[in-house]
Amino acid sequence: MTHTLTQPNLADLDLFEDGAPWSTFDQLRATPGLHWSDEDAPNHGFWSVTRYHDVVRVLRDTDTFTSTKFTNLEEVAPELQDKRRSLLETDGLRHRALRRMLQGQFTPQAVAKYETFLRGITAKTLDAAIAKGSFDFVDEVSADFPIRVLARLLDVPDSDTGQLIEWGNRMIGNTDPEHADLLISSAESDEYKHVPFRSPAAIEVYEYGKHMAAERRGKGGTDLVTLLADGVPSDGQPLTEDEFNTNFLLLVVAGNETTRHTITHTMNNLLANPEQMDILRNDPTLIPWAVEEFLRYASPVYHFRRTATRDTEFAGTEVAEGDKVVVWFASGNRDDAVFDEPYRFDVTRNPNEHMSFGRGGPHMCLGNALARIELRIMFEDLLSRDVSFERTGSVDYLRSNFVHGIKRMPVRVV
């Protein structure tokens, strides 16, 4: 099928050099239909869905827009898809069975029992950072806190947290020369096409997970590694070795990256909007609801992809079977058809049905309750302290059109 290229092209990483291209999303939402972006070979291009309600329609229609052909822009060869398939790339009965096996660990009731533990980690993290006077907020706060929570859920020693962060950086940063072992666009990455993100780090994560599973299998533990190793999904099919590998890797990445970036964005947004910080300091009871605005404004994941299972017409656009259809959560979170003054950071915004965790459909983020409690506790503690911060340098963004990440944000206590 021949497509007419609609500029701007959301495959162009230069658009994301300085963070989210909000004006580009505005332009695309204002233009009727879906919008085609060409890609370099071996990829074939994709349709972009940028309006909030259209994103919801795609997420809910799994019969027409499947996750089984993978959810990132990379087009995985059919013979490698089962080897690389995780919960994210599964639909239907198997998806429900895998999700049900894990979801008990991530319900609001389950994560609430970690509150005392979370408050202790938060206090320790902030005490150590503030004592330095000047520090990088990402390294000392945003990355340190969620990775220690993940270590608790996986039951791994705190001494391993630095390695977990490094693995996440190398995989999620596979389009950023600073982080990637091999850029995903390079010919050399073809050697790693059998693993997620085409990253050598994925192989290291696999080995780490397999070693822990071998030690814990059959010993009745309650950690997430044991759950994956010993658990039998409700469809009666135990996880294969490949499924253990890919789902363990998913936990390592998802349990750290998005919360980390949301914390950094939120601190940056509060510094840029001191009147909003004052609202929360004057009335901390508003913080649990303000978390929703933290998430909307941060939009830590730009997009996920679906694939059309048949020829279809959507939003006035003819979409062919096999076409990639990319839903842009970040764009939906700035849609003025849903959010009044969407570029106003408003910690009292109500209603606030953001789509940072997805919005409807079976793939809504499994860890949303954990992320919410982490964000709430972090900012309840941080804003209760009699200290202020100011940036001492520019915010350095991840070169990615997948994760709206911040690599560095230098600050000092004032």
From TrEMBL:
Keywords: Heme, Iron, Metal-binding, Monooxygenase, Oxidoreductase. This is Cytochrome P450. The lineage of its organism: Bacteria, Bacillati, Actinomycetota, Actinomycetes, Micrococcales. The keyword Heme applies. PANTHER family: BIOTIN BIOSYNTHESIS CYTOCHROME P450, P450, PUTATIVE (EUROFUNG)-RELATED. Pfam families: p450. It comes from the Bacteria. One of its GO terms (biological process) is cholesterol catabolic process. Belongs to the cytochrome P450 family. InterPro entries: Cyt_P450, Cyt_P450_B, Cyt_P450_sf. One of its GO terms (molecular function) is steroid hydroxylase activity.
